[in-house]
Amino acid sequence: MSNTPSELKYARSHEWARLEEDGTVTVGISDFAQESLGDVVFVEVPELGTNVAAGDEVSVVESVKAASDIYAPIGGEVIAVNEALEEEPETVNTEPYEDGWLFKLRPSDVSELDNLLDAEDYQQLCEDE
Amino acid sequence: MSDSPSNSPLLHTPLYDLHLALGAKMVPFAGYAMPVQYPLGVLKEHNHCREQAGLFDVSHMGQVRIKGAGITEALEALVPVDLAVLPKFKQSYAVFTNEQGGILDDLMITRLADDEFFLVVNAACKEQDIAHLRAHLNGFDIEVIEDHALLALQGPQARAALDQLIPSAAELRFMSASPATVTIDGAEVECFVSCAGYTGEDGYEISIPAQHATAFAQQLLALDEVEAIGLGARDSLRLEVGLCLYGHDLDTSTTPVEAGLLWSISKSRRPGGEKAGGYPGADIIAAQIENGASRKRVGLKINGRAPVREGAELMDSPGNSIGRVTSGGFGPTVGAPVAMGYVSAEHAAIGSQIAVLLRGKTIAVEVVKMPFTPQNYVR
């Protein structure tokens, strides 16, 4: 059973989003997603300063099996990327919700988070897949 | 070997239930339900095979026994190999060619007797290969062995592992084979062991009656050094040592010369040899041997860490298309992306600086010698 922290919001495309105290939003992929992808060997993070809309392809996670597109769960400006993944992409597998985060956004409209799934609904989605 | 487009129900190998019991993730492959990975995961499975020993179910591959007086000459008419000089229980890699010199399949040939050979062919090609054999070996005895599983045991500790179960066969050297017996549930079971594989490591392939295959696999898996390995790691293991995957790196439009498989064409079957030609497409292949081919399969060292996959376009420095990647991924042992592909002859020299297009970006690529990681065969 994959781990689905209740304080996060989830996109149907398996990204998670966490609203931080400073109003920024951290994005990563869920435990379910990393498990399905298998061993991650490369992460292409978005460029700093890029403005993205919800649903835009912003990043690519490559596992031993295939490349998977990562979509922005909400719109905003990319204000940080996880550079540690360049050397240790496997952190996405081992700590998908902590050190394995992908990028941070300054949301253009924080209410877009309400369009995402809560943990319970996301868990259901994963069980149905 | 490529995925079969057929919609018919997936076939099961004799180890199917064992795969499920081991927690494998099963995928369709060449018409079979096959384990792509076990709970260990592709990366750890790959590393385990390089460091210790891995057990692979390759029962989906075709096992065929052909025999009859004159079979050596008859089979030589289908493959550019000097089989007359292949001793009993020695193996040769070979390709079936078509009239255009293209590759119908690649296979392993083992001589069993003066007038008998054992062939192992790719799963996705086996129906077509068997038809090809029946069409060209009219009057010979062609037996498709459906009641035997085929297991591969590969890795630096494969020898020590097999020695515990089949000590007689553990002595084999690379590209040789032997009948053997293994004790299963107190009974002596006949099997056939060859010393070869598809990982670049020392190891064996064992053909064993289907009803004993699971028990035999369990005996091997009970050894500390042996883990079950899926198709995912099988692919990265073979790619790192520069071995071709049929349907990807080889196909009917690719000649053995283009594929860098000239070594598989016996000297006596090349132009000027005492048994030159005499196989389908020999004239086209001979011309390529003498004058060179217009494109070549090469190893590709990718700048950076992003894996480049099959189909990616290769370019020269002005940005002209010069070929495509045919296999690519991350090489866990190399610790970097590894790939192979075809490029036009003028870019095929070792050290050529070319580029690959990846998600709209141009990434520097160097043509390099393969294998990417050393082959560790015991000769």
UniProtKB/TrEMBL annotation, chain A:
Organism taxonomic ancestry:
Bacteria, Pseudomonadati, Pseudomonadota, Gammaproteobacteria, Cellvibrionales
The record's comment on protein family reads: Belongs to the GcvH family.
Describe the task this protein carries out.
The glycine cleavage system catalyzes the degradation of glycine. The H protein shuttles the methylamine group of glycine from the P protein to the T protein.
Q: Which UniProt keywords apply?
A: Lipoyl
Name the Pfam families for this protein. Answer: GCV_H
Write the protein's name. Answer: Glycine cleavage system H protein
Q: Does the keyword NAD apply?
A: no
Q: Tell me the SUPFAM superfamilies matching this sequence.
A: Single hybrid motif
Which free-text remark accompanies the cofactor?
Binds 1 lipoyl cofactor covalently.
What cofactor requirement does the entry state? Answer: (R)-lipoate
Name the CDD domains on file: GCS_H
Highest taxon listed in the record's lineage: Bacteria
Q: Which GO terms describe its cellular component?
A: cytosol; glycine cleavage complex
Q: How does it assemble?
A: The glycine cleavage system is composed of four proteins: P, T, L and H.
> Cross-referenced InterPro entries, in alphabetical order?
2-oxoA_DH_lipoyl-BS, Biotin_lipoyl, GCV_H, GCV_H/Fam206, GCV_H_sub, Single_hybrid_motif
Domain (Lipoyl-binding) spans 24-106
N6-lipoyllysine-modified residues are where?
K65
One GO BP annotation of this record: protein lipoylation
Automatic annotation (TrEMBL), chain B:
**Does the UniProt entry include the keyword Transferase?**
yes
Recorded GO molecular functions are: aminomethyltransferase activity; transaminase activity
User: What EC numbers are recorded for this enzyme?
Assistant: 2.1.2.10
UniProt keywords, alphabetically: Aminotransferase, Transferase
Q: What class of enzyme is it?
A: transferase
Q: Which residues form the Aminomethyltransferase C-terminal domain?
A: 295-372
Can you say what this protein is called?
Answer: aminomethyltransferase
Q: Which organism is it from?
A: Dasania phycosphaerae
**Gene label:** gcvT
